[in-house]
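Training component of the fellowship. As part of building independent skills, the fellow (R.M.) carried out the full modelling exercise for a liganded target. The chosen ligand was iron/sulfur cluster. The inputs are recorded below so that the supervisory panel can assess the work.
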Amino acid sequence: MTASRAKVEPVTCLGCGCVCDDVNVQVSDGRIVAVTPECPVARTWFGDGSVPERVLRDGAAAELSDALTEAAALLTHSAGRVLVYLAPELSTQAQRTALALADLLRARVDSATSEPAAAGLLAAQRRGRATATLGEIRNRADVLLFWGVDPTTRYPRYLSRYALDPEGSHVPGGRRGRKVISVHVGEARGPAGAELEVTLDPADEIGALSVMRATVLGNALDPLPPALQGAARAAGELLSARYAVLVHEAEPSRLTPDPFRAEGLIALVQALNGPTRAALSSLRAGGNRSGAESVLTWQTGYPLAVDFAAGFPRYTPSTRGLASAGAGVTAVLIAGNTAGLGADASATLGRVPTVVIGPRASEAPFTARVAIDTGVAGIHEAGIAYRMDEMPLPLRPPLSGRRSAAGTLEALLTVVHQRLRERST
Ligand code: SF4
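Fellow's submitted model of the complex:
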């Protein structure tokens, strides 16, 4: 018997927020055996493409129709006290259907938007935000400042594809035409090989951002302590840019950033947009997390923490996340992959009846009332996903034949709709 081999190209990778759409995948006998170009995060994310295909009720195997009926009964019974959580690895189409369920159920909605990313979103709502697409960065950025982050590990192709190496329409020399400023904040290091390196103690970080902003605005400053003189030099380099880009990590890491970092960077970029042009690039994780924020924003006007209890969307950013499932919530619907849930969230969900629909639902770290496994957006499921710069891109799955998350959520929506209609007549 000969093994069936196929090369699928180009595939869109959701391994990180770069959402590279030029990935080639080799499939042999229904398994992914090679991913090119080389990217360790992509290789881990694609794996061999195998996912569980179970349907469980209270941990025991069940028929899909019975599981959907049970899920609908639980959710409609709790209407007005439901939390819908948009976890990663869903297409935008599936996220939109989950949101429609939340609307019907008058639920609270939240997503896997991390605390650091939320801090940036909330600061942007207060101040506005100058940002850019990754294509614009590639084509225009001649000075790049990395604030306490080296994208190489978590976003392996960010530098080679967008920010540093490629030739751009306004930066024909590629890396030679770009100046790099690497700001190290404590242990959080910027990339090596920068033209200017600035080392800051974490306690000086916000002061350094203030000094840089004041320098850019042309404010007179008293003589600076040695710890902040590098920050003033970096501001001078930014002022020499035709197009400066500041890059920061917007996802959780071992090193918790100062809660005012995002706001300080946003304010600095705004100040730079007087004397020159500048943009802030926020590094975001994969799994279409940014898509959840986009869907929420276009449907409700808010990117996270939306409450439909009043019959219309209200913004409640102070009660965010799965921790809120403990307060007045009597049922939870998780749409997406639960793999990234922390111990606290899992413990909370172990106490509240929960329906999980998404990739690896049957492997949730708590016993769900109903768990329905589906394929992974981008590996088994087509649709749209959003890049870290909020650009929508089509997904071209290399594998097929798995249960669709969008289709399963659509089926649940139909049953929930029916039940609610019956209840009201
Ligand atoms: S950089 Fe990110 S999106 Fe691009 S191939 Fe690697 S993991 Fe996938």
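The panel noted the following from the submitted structure. The first strand starts at residue 5 and ends at 11. The radius of gyration is 23 Å.
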